Amino acid sequence: MAYQPPVRADFAFPSEFYLPKSSFTFYPEPGVIFLPPPSVVSQYQSQWSQGRGCEINKESLFLNASRQYSEHKVNYQDATASSALFQLNWGRLAYKEVTVSSSFKPAQPKDNKKADQWVQLTAMDSHRQSLWDQSVQNQDQQKNHHWQIPPRKDKQQTESFYRVDEFTEKTEDEYQGYQPAASILLDFYFSHRRYSPLSTPAVYFRFSVRPEKQAIRPKDARLNQRFDSHQAQDQPVKIPWGFGQKITDEHITSEYGGETEPQPDKPEPQQPDIRETYLLMNTISVVTLPDRIPLEMRELDISLDIDSFAWSLRGEIWGASSLAQVEPDSNGMKQIEVNINGWQWLFMIERYDTDRAFNRERYTIHGTSRTSLLAAPYAPLRSKSSTTSINAKQAATEELTNTGFTLNWPTTGNYTTPDWIIPGNTFSYQNQTAMQVIARIASTAGAVIIPDKNTDTLTIQPRYPESPWNWPETTMDKIVPASMVISLSASWQPEAEYNAVYVSGIYEGVSVNVKRQGTAADNPAPDIFEDWLTETQVNTERGRNELSKGGNQSITTIELPLTDTETAPGLIEPGKLVEVQDITGNWQALCLSTRIKAKVAKVTQTVELERHY
């Protein structure tokens, strides 16, 4: 219900919180009492134990509750009508006089001169506003400072010269502020105003020091510079450029002579003997390293393709005793040397297979060349970021540091991959092996990696040493006569014949639109974007290799004998240009893969050639 004060009350609320002088209750008694409704409480106790089998007709301990009168089921009843004073606890306050609701009253008039502390300033004479007076008198100009007008001298009189003081120690003049004697008491109080003496006598301050003339002292020039020993730097990183490449022009001559060092021509391949019958005596030897224990091999299979960086070996050996000589152990992999008709390979035996049954046993070994040590899982993963410019050849060489491997990257002459400069903050990689980095550098320029057979050497060369449309006029590496071909098969595999391609870097470098000469460049290949394409020369070389992949072509497989090192054609390795003197006419191709098979005394090599039409 609403609060009803018993008597008239006057509430004056100032700016502070209201605090009543005496306690009072807003809820007077008697009030509405809410009684809890009656309820029926049934209490049961039960003790849980192991149940016993009972008859169905036994009664349950729980019985139906007895019915109760309806007036006991509903505990809530209609409230009894009460007076308005007890219906609501909150109501509307009674109206009060307006004059009573505010405690503000008109202020009493005050005397103006007591309203604040500001008083009227005393009138002062206008000439007193300036603190400058006539106490300072004019004095002789010569006494104002120590600089005086020099006496007149004869013009022809020479100036005096003094010799520099070479041996006296260096001295420095120290100028301190004015310090009066202890017996004199001076009190200067200016109060942020110009000083004006209070007495009639003039007061002058003269602070000056007349320096003593001294001879000039020379300074040791060696003290101006410091010479320290140079810091130790990595030799390959210190110089970002490699050996220069001399560009010669054979077409420019003068009365003083022209270029005397033309690029050497590619040597002509050895012409094989064409016979009706070839009699070959194959020699095969397999020994372990370094003890050179001979191994009895039943069959050998050696292969390499143009996209691989290691030769592979698969061979069957005789007996478990031979397997024990080459199987890997706790010291690592064993190495063997294979020599077939004078061609030599070095392999590491990675794994082996055994197959033994009654009256039969077979042992197979699998090996790879040592260049696999530069790849996973043998080589560690590394990350690098070069902040300075670096040559691509130098970057590849640094990956082989402290590995025992060497890089063969010819950059002069024809049929070679050019070297280029990669700007700072461009050459970087993360979690890659040395072989992955070198392979990426080579593929950027359209080149491939050719591993050596028996030495730790990697060779970088173009995938296409010469463009296919120039093969008829190009000097080949190998010549295969039709008389030496054991078998020949071909598979037609044409590719899109593009005549233009756009090659560009991403963050640094140049963009080059490479076009095939003699064409309209109206069929462009997909654009090529890579981080390390940063110079015109390498972009052009990459575009040339990309355009060389297209056109009508076939993959031709030729089987021929493997001749010794002194007889043509010898071993045909991937990346070599081969001319086949077929019965229908000569044609040129690129060697994609090589496979040598030796079983008992028969040795053959099978090469896959990419032939363009």
How would you characterize this protein structure?
By secondary structure, the protein is mostly beta strands. It contains six helices and 22 strands. Strands 1, 2, 3, 4, 5, 6, 14, 15, 19, 20, 21 and 22 form a twelve-stranded mixed beta sheet that branches. A hairpin with a 2-residue loop joins strand 4 and strand 5. The longest helix has 13 residues. About 5% of the residues have low confidence.
Distance between the termini: 110 Å
Helical run tally: 6
**What string, H for helix and E for strand, traces the elements in order?**
HHEEEHEEEEEHEEEHEEEEEEEHEEEE
Report the major sheet.
12 strands, mixed
Strand content: 15-25%
In round numbers, the mean pLDDT is 78
Overall geometry: extended
The count of strands amounts to 22
Structural class: mainly beta
The rounded Rg comes to 55 Å
Helical residue percent band = under 10%
Q: Unreliable stretches, pLDDT < 50, 5 or more residues?
A: 83-88, 233-239, 246-260
Quick structural summary:
The chain is mostly beta strands.
